[in-house]
Design brief:
Blueprint: H1 12-24, H2 29-39, E1 46-47, H3 48-55, H4 59-71, E2 75-78, E3 87-90, H5 94-100, H6 103-119, H7 124-158
Antiparallel strand pairs: 1-3, 2-3
Helix pairs in contact: 1-2, 2-4, 3-4, 6-7
């Protein structure tokens, strides 16, 4: 597959907007841009060069972003014997997997926040703040498996013929 011109790339404005939202909530900027570009990629994904062209960035910026996204299992590298260049594509269900795997993280956060609250002793305001936060994370820990089940049911129903 040859390099695609910028005009051939679809969804650029929406992808950049989504990347900006992710960046605003703390996701690294270049990995967010690369991930959103890959969501909008044609079948077979993009090469690093095509990603750089689409995003208007250097190969080094693409390399670092790709490395980060592979580490967090959001994208995968595709090597084919008949193609010289490696391609990258988004892992289907990547967000689903990340969210499903967060339940234990919420419980661990709650336990640490409880320790912070306990260390404040007589400070009622700090104790109340930490109790509220740890209760929220425990709520998320309890609800996440139910939300995942609901999503799986909804997704299966949507895919029925």
């Amino acid at each position: 597959m040859t390099s695609q011109s910028s005009a051939a790339h679809v969804g650029i404005d929406a992808a950049e907007g989504a990347a900006a939202v992710l960046t605003a909530v703390g996701f690294p900027r270049m990995p967010a841009r690369v991930m959103m570009a890959l969501i909008a990629a044609p079948a077979g994904g993009y090469t690093a060069g095509e990603l750089g062209e689409r995003l208007g960035v250097s190969p080094a910026a693409v390399s670092g972003a790709v490395r980060y996204l592979q580490t967090v299992h959001m994208i995968r590298r595709i090597s084919r014997p008949d193609q010289r260049l490696v391609r990258y594509e988004i892992v289907s269900d990547a967000w689903y997997e990340v969210m499903a795997g967060n339940s234990p993280v919420y419980e661990r956060l709650a336990a640490h926040i409880d320790e912070i609250g306990a260390a404040h002793g007589d400070d009622a305001v700090a104790r109340e703040r930490t109790e509220e936060m740890s209760e929220f994370f425990r709520f998320m820990s309890r609800r996440m498996p139910q939300l995942i089940d609901e999503w799986e049911t909804e997704r299966a129903e949507r895919r029925l013929p």
